[in-house]
Structure formats: structure tokens, C-alpha cells
Amino acid sequence: MVLPPPAPDRGGAAQPLLETRGLVKHFPIRGGLFGRQMGEVRAVDGVSLTVRKGETLGIVGESGCGKSTTARLLMRLLDPGAGEMIFDGDAVGRDDLGGGISLKDYRRQVQMVFQDSYASLNPRLPIEDTIAFAPEVHGVPAAEARERARELLAAVGLAPAQFARRYPHELSGGQRQRVNIARALALRPRLVILDEPVSALDKSVEAQVLNLLVDLKESFGLTYVFISHDLNVVQYISDRVLVMYLGQVVEEGPVDEIYARPGHPYTRALLASRPSMDPSQRRTEPPLTGDPPNPVNPPSGCRFRTRCPHAEAVCAEIPPVAATLSPGHTAACHMALPGSGHSQAGGIAA
Amino acid sequence: MSAALKPTPEAPLIRLRDLHVKFESRDRTVHAVNGVDLDLAAGEVLCILGESGSGKSVTLRALMKLLPKTAKVTGEIKVGGRDVQAMNESQLADFRGGDVAMIFQEPMTALDPVFTIGRQIAETVQRHEGASRSAADARALELLELVQIPSAKRRLSAYPHELSGGLRQRAMIAVALACRPKLLLADEPTTALDATVQIQVLLLLRSLQEQLGMGVVFVTHDLGVAGEIADRVAVMYAGKVVEEGPVGALMAGPLHPYAKGLLGATVHAGMRGKRLTTIPGAPPMLDKVPTGCAFAPRCAEVIEGCHTGVPALRQIVPGRQARCILVAPGEG
Fold first, then answer.
1. For chain A, which residues make up each domain, given as ranges?
2. pTM listed for this prediction
3. ipTM beyond cut 0.90
4. A-chain residue closest to B166, CA distance
5. CA distances to A182, A246, B61, B105 from B217, in Å
6. Which of these, A4, A85, A111, B264, could form a disulfide with B277 (CB 3.0-4.6 Å)?
7. Which residues of chain A lie closer than 8 angstroms to B196, CB-CB?
């Protein structure tokens, strides 16, 4: 075994592996004469989340809800406009203040797998060189990095003798995604961010990769953030689930709670939108009408109110804060907040 | 105006027999479709279910003679009793959009970005029905209302990029329905949509299909989508139909090992904590026509005889067919 152990646990089991508070990312829209700023896309607007050690946190939402921007912020591929990130008790990127963790050390412990398995591999490198690249950058001798790459290929179910010298275009989509996973593990990270890792795969291959992810989590002692639009896949793999809508978290809780007793009207609609596999259970009315609004001009107050069947005056005025429905299960909805001014306040918490 | 399609019990809306499609280029040959037989009755919804490379979209495109010149197409393709392969360009121009219409996965590439939605619908009506410009414009408004686009009148003068994904898909459906086609071909029209929008479009398509009595061939890789929309399902693998039957029976108890594997590998509620059943390996490359059962290399129930010849698509119970030597007639 040439793979080194992962970085040691610093904060202990009770310290969350990653915490964010009020993460914000707005993208400016430029146009017109002299490229002036015309507005901004509020892709992520105050996201606070907690990833506990050893768990899988699922993030679901529709396109434009900010889930992929959140992933890139967590990986620090994007710099947040505001907010802070704490990794195992250390402030990320604040090593200058003492007690923080530098971005270089952070990125060694946090790795990412992307949806597009082809675009995220270098087409000119054999896959074992791709996997060995990051360890070499971090100072591992070339021969050892190569050996590590072969070990990882075996771990993701690709026989090194057969596959190590192949190029990405010589592999199928499922095989390429295995290579991406192997590369993500090459630095022995503690946290892996999976951004729609199986969405581009066929169903029969998707199941293979999901099984592999479950196995690797166990054998490598990993923690996952799993981002997907597929509610069934998120339910299968996650311990806790975060539901996002237009750049904000609308509901968070243990997976069984969220799926059995969704607290936010959006979560309920999302769950009810899943096509049924049983033709005798066909629905006749869509749970929601219209598309999600544009994150350039999000609605005032509660951002879901324009599509919500229960919207009242208070929803347009005051942005709802997260209300606790049961231990660890929160929903940001005026109906869940007793005394919020909504006529059904407190009605859905029961 | 094109000759109206008059399907009779003897001549179903679609009759495909022994369809083969082969793509030949200098470097390689791909046998995409290897003998597909399909029938569609008027007013029926057939889902072709398959993974990428199974030949489902190629089969659909062959029905409208939309395949590129590099494709070698053989077999019988009859739509409304007419031989599609024998049509010349001007007959095809009448046929496409008039009798048969198609909707695609990506409305942004299927719609013309430099014309308004209203103009694109009206153009179809003018071309096929010889309607005047004002009559065609009025029909465009009717159609936008039919596909439930809110504030339809204002949306007539919108360009495709000004609409959201769901509205764009509705606009494309409106273009397709402009001349009241008897047959609608749908190539994964909801795959690119969000969950809450996908169900809206599926329900819309189902109600329009019932309202207009269209036959629909709906290509998808998503079992859930098939469950919502299909009357009958044909499962394709490596360019062949491996199982065909009514949607309810097929979803409740698939017969062919591939169909079983596909259902088992699809993640749904209540599988948490359990190991997913998978189909090992990957589909064949199809640079050669498979000589035995194309699924045999991945099949858990494979026996000696699977490699010796291509199994026939046999009727197992009335209305259900499977292409597997292990599934005997009378089972299921």
C-alpha cells in the first residue's frame, strides 16, 4: 500500500468537518457601452450548512438554484463574496491570522468530481498520469505517484494492466467517471464534493458508480457532499439533505424526515413531481406551475412565493427564517413559524 | 396540402418491418439498428426505452427520413400506409410537419433564434394549409393557448431566448401541433427540464394526445417518464427490440433479463442502504452485427445457446413479446 493516510482528525468527532456561514456569490452582468455592470445574478445568497464527519450531505434543487455554485464555493474554485468557511475548526484561507488553514492545505483535503467526465480529464494524458499529476505537484516522487495511481485504478474497479495507459477517449462514460473518482482520491482527501457525478450516465452504469461511491466512502473513510437534481439518487445515498431554491436553503434535515415529512411547500412539490413508475398511480395535476424565476431579480420576501399555493401577504414582505420542525429538521417557511403572521402558521409543523 | 393519413385497422399508423440502419464512414461502421419491427395504432402512445447507443433515436428519425446521407437504411417504413423511404424531397416536405411532427430534447436548437415564436408557428400553418397570414397568426395564438402558455398574446412576439426552458418546450410543441398531425414523434422532450417542469410538460403532452387523438412515439431513457406517458413500451438494446408490452405489465414484471436489470438498476424510493443491482459491463460497440444475443456478455442467466444464434422476438403472452431463449411462451 503506497497510499498515505489522510490528514489527521483535528477537532474530534463532534466538530463538523465543514461549516459555512452566510456564503454569498453574486455574478455581475456586464453589458452596454464600456461594459458597465447592468445587474447581478444572485447565484448563492446566504448559504449556511454543516457537513458532519463521515456523513453524506445531499444537496437537491432545480437548475439555477445555486447548487453547483455552492459546490464550487465549497471547493474554493470561486471566492465567496461574503461569508466564512470553517474546516475541522480552522477558518479556510485565513492562515494569515493564525489558527486558520491555507487554501493549498484545504484543497489537499477537499476534492471534487464533476458531472462531465470527459471535460474534466486532460485528453492528452494517459489516465494514470492524470491521477498521478496532483500527488506529483504536491511533492510525491514520480515513480511513487505512478504506483499510487495504479493502486487507485484498482480501487475504482479498472484493472491497471489493462487501463493505465489509455486515454480518456478510449473509455466509456462510466469508466471515465471512475477515473475522475480515482483522481479525486489521489491526495487522500477527507471530504469529496460530488457535483452531479452520475447524471450523465446510463441507468445501468449509474448503479455501478453509486455502489462504488458507497464502497469507497467506507474503505477510505470519506465524507461526501453529493449534489444532484435526481431526488431518488439523493435519497439513496444521503444521510442528510439540503433543499435549495433560488440561491437559498429552504429545508434541511435527515433524509428520512425530509422524504417522509417534507416541511417546505417547495420540497413537497419537488417530491410530488417525481414521475411514478406505476402507470396506475399517474397524477392528473402538476404540483407546481411555471418555471423557477430568474435569480437576477428574485422575488421579495420568500423567494418561492410566486409559485407557492399558500402564499399570503406576509410572504412578500418578510423573508422567512428557518424554523425547527423536529431535531435537526428545519424549513424556511412562514407556515412553519408560529406567530409569523401567516394564517396557517404552525399548521405544518405538526 | 398533403394527403391526409387515414389509418385503418389493416394499415396501422406506423408499420416498421426489419428496419436496419448502418452508419458508414471511412474509419468505422456502426450498426445502429439491427432489425426493428414495430407497429403503432392510431391514438396510441408507444415509448421506446433504451440507454444511449441502443438505437432508439435512430429508429425515431428513420420514421421521418431524417437520417444523414451516411446512413444506410433498409427495411419497410410505412407511416399511414405510405412508404417513407420512397418519398422524394417535395413529398417529404409535405409529410414532415403536416402529417407527422417531431419534438426534440433541446428547444433552443430546434427553434429558429431569429424569428418570433408566433411567426414560426404561423409559417408552418401557411406552408402546409395554405392559410392567409392573418388566419395563420390567429391559429398561432390558439396554439399557444392550447399548450397553456400564460399571456399567450404577448408571447407571440417573443423570441426563443426570451422564454424559460419550460415555455420554450411548450412553444416547440405548439409548432409541432400546428397542422394537427396524426403522429407525433418525441425525442426525449423532457430530459433537459427540471423536475417540477418535466411533470407539467408530460401531463400537457398526455392531455393533448387524448384531446387530438394523436399517435405518439416517445423516446426516453427514463423509466419514470415511460410510466407517466406510455400505453405500450418497447425496450431496445443494441439496435433491437428485446421486450415489448403494455406499460403496466412490463413495469410490474419485466421478462427479458436486460429489462429486469434496467428496472433493478433504477434507483427509487425504499432502496436506501441496500446494494443496487447492476448490469455488469457496458453495451457492445456495434461495429459488427451481433451474431448471438447481444446482451449475452452481460447477462447473469447466460447459457450455451445464447451465443449460437440471434433469439427471435416471441410472443410470451398475448400482447407481450420478448427476445430471449430462456423466456418461454406461456410464462409471465
1. 18-244, 246-275+287-336
2. 0.89
3. no
4. A291
5. 40, 35, 11, 14
6. B264
7. 62, 269-270, 273, 286-288, 292
